[in-house]
Amino acid sequence: MELIIQNLSKTYSNGVKALNDISLTIPQGMFGLLGPNGAGKSTLMRTIATLQDADEGSISLDGIDVLQDKQSVRERLGYLPQDFGLYPRINAETMLDHIAQMKGIGNKSERKELVASLLNRVNLYKDRKKGLGTYSGGMRQRFGIAQALVGNPSLIIVDEPTAGLDPSERNRFYNLLSEIGENTIVILSTHIVEDVNTLCSNMAIICMGELLMQGKPKDGLAMVQGKIYKKSIDKSELDQYRQDYHVISTKLIEGKLSLRVESEAAPGNGFEPSQADLEDVYFSFISKKVDPITI
Ligand code: ADP
To answer: What pTM value is reported for the model?
Structure first.
C-alpha cells in the first residue's frame, strides 16, 4: 500500500501559496511530516483527507484517485484533525457508538463489541461513561484515535496530535500510535521533531509550501553528521555570529546562548564538534528558508 502525491499545488484566495509543487511517496508505517507553523502541513493533510481541493497535481492511494474518488478514500480513512470539537456532555461510549453508526456499522451488537474493543485499545474503557468535556488533553487525543480507528482504516492522518500534551500523556500517545502504525499508513503531521524521531520510519520536511527533504530519519542524519559544531556565546554576540557562520539553531541555557552551526570544515574560534541529531537535520533544512529558530 502506498500514497503517491505528485506535483501538488495550492494557492489560497488571499495569494498565499500553501503548497508549491509537492511530490511525496508515503509507504506503509509511520510517516512524519515535519514543518514549522504555516509550512502547509494542515493544507496537505486536509487535501489528502478529501476535505479541500488542490489547484494542481494528483494524489493516489493504492490506485484510487484521491482528488476525484473522494467517497472511496473516506471509506478507508481515519482522521484526527488539529482542532477537533467534542460534545462535552456526551460520554465516550455513546459518541463512539454514534460514529460507528455513521460509518455504516448498522448491527447493534457488532457496534457494541467494536466500541468496547476500541475503548480498551486506547485505555479509556474505565472512563467510558464520563462526559468528553471532563477529559484531559491526553484522554481527548486518545479518544480522537479511537474515533479515527472506527471502520478499520488503511490510511490514518493525525494532525499535530501531541501539541499541549504533558510528557507522560505524550508517551502513552506515542505507544498507541506505534501500535497502529504496523499495518496501515499513518501520517503524523507535527512541528515537534521528537515525535518523528521516536515514531517514524520515514519522514519529510516542508517549509513555506515546499518539500525540502524526504527519506528515512537516518538518511537525514547522514547528511549533517560531522558538520555540526556548537559553542556557548553571550546573547549580545548573536548577530555577529549569524553573519560569520551558518547558525542553524540557538538554545538559551542558563542565560547563555548555545549555538549550533553547520560547517563543512571545523570553524575553529572555540567551536566544538557535536553529534548530530534529528533536530539538526530539521533546522539545517529550515534555516535555508527562514531565519534560525531559538528553541
Ligand atoms: P501548517 O499546518 O503547517 O501550520 P497551514 O497549511 O495551516 O500550515 O497554512 C499554510 C499557509 O496557508 C499559512 O501561511 C496559512 O496562513 C495559510 N492558510 C491556511 N489556511 C488558509 C485559508 N483558509 N485561507 C488563506 N490562507 C490560509
So the answer is: 0.90
